[in-house]
Amino acid sequence: MDPTAGGIIGVIIAIFVVIVLVKSIKIVPQQWNYVIERLGKYRRTLEPGPRLLVPFIDTVRARVDLRERVVNFPPQPVITEDNLMVSIDTVLYYIITNPTGAVYNIDDYLAGVEQLTTTTLRNVVGAMDLEKTLTSREEINSRLAAELDKATDKWGIKVTRVELRAIEPPASIRDAMEKQMRAERDRRAAILNAEGVKASEILRAEGEQQSSILRASGERDAEVLRAEGQAKAIQTVNAAIHSSKPTNRLLAYQYMQTLPQIAQGDSNQMWFIPAELTQSLGAIGSALGGMTQSQEQDDELDVEVDTSVLQGDEAAKRALEAAKRAASQVADVADDKSKAGDKRAIEE
């Protein structure tokens, strides 16, 4: 045998052995499963690690990733219960739990999951109005996840969760919603402002009430103290008058001094001289007459005049002169008021 031909045959055999080894040994990565077919029929599923196959008989039908996967579906138009078109963008999270079912039970499980998500989303959102759709994302997510998980179980797929990434209503609806939200914010601001003004007015009224109460209490205490002072003053004067035992001449003199003050009021158009004035003048005259008689008797009897009697005569004389002046002033004031009254009557 030619050595060259033997070398070629040896190389061919070596290459064949290498190919057989490559076909016989499969290394499956972590979190992956290989679906193996033998002569076109499902044989087994290879788990992670090195595995042996029958070369040229066993083949790898599919390599299945067992990790959780995320699929972002394009926005889908959905009609709500109140006949408004909204665009919803969804994100799906799923795990392949049965590689055989994912390979043999459906042609393309990703396309099937997408279509199933779209139809389920339309069924769920179609039973809600727009406002509930915008405010019930958690409810929609949970219902979608439950429906999809139930439908994809026979495919060997478990849907872990579904998220609505965006809900876009029409532009006209967005404008109306913005106006509504702006009006709602304005209303809340007006309510808060009114409540603040109300609280401020209440506090101000309470402050004024307390201030008025304190002021009235202070005025009351002042009036009480003033009245008590006047009462004590009157008692003191009364006690002093009774202890000094004033005579009629002194009282008449004080009365005559008070008459001009009575006549000085601007509102007094007419006033009457009381009868006590004549009695006072008579008391002063009798006092003077009595003093004159006592003086004559003292002169006839040549009795020494007491100093106190002389002082009483002088006081009586001064009282008489004061009475005359008071009567003159009273008459002048009455005359002036009478002329003023006549003048106004003429003018009217």
Shape, per Cα inertia axes = rod-shaped
CATH fold category name of the largest domain: Tetrahydropterin Synthase, Chain A
Task: Write down the Rg.
Answer: 64 Å
Instruction: State the CATH architecture of the largest domain.
Output: 2-Layer Sandwich
Mean pLDDT: 76
**Cα-to-Cα separation, first versus last residue:** 171 Å
CATH class of the largest domain: Alpha Beta
How many individual domains? 4
CATH homologous group name of the largest domain = Band 7 domain
Report the sheet with the most strands, covering strand number, pairing sense and barrel closure: 4 strands, antiparallel
User: Which residue ranges are poorly predicted, with pLDDT under 50 across at least 5 consecutive positions?
Assistant: 290-313
DSSP strand tally: 9
Strand content: 15-25%
SS element count, helices: 9
Helix/strand/pairing class, anyone?
A: alpha+beta
The helix/strand order is HEEEEEEEEHHHHEHHHH
Please bin the fraction of helical residues: 55-70%
Task: Give a concise summary.
The chain has helices spanning 3-24, 99-104, 109-125, 130-135, 137-151, 171-244, 248-262, 275-301, 307-347, and strands at 25-28, 32-38, 41-46, 49-52, 58-65, 69-72, 76-79, 85-96, 157-168.
Topology:
Blueprint: H1 3-24, E1 25-28, E2 32-38, E3 41-46, E4 49-52, E5 58-65, E6 69-72, E7 76-79, E8 85-96, H2 99-104, H3 109-125, H4 130-135, H5 137-151, E9 157-168, H6 171-244, H7 248-262, H8 275-301, H9 307-347
Antiparallel strand pairs: 1-4, 2-3, 2-5, 6-8, 7-8, 8-9
Pfam families: Band_7 (PF01145)
Domain Band: 23-181
Region (Disordered): 326-348
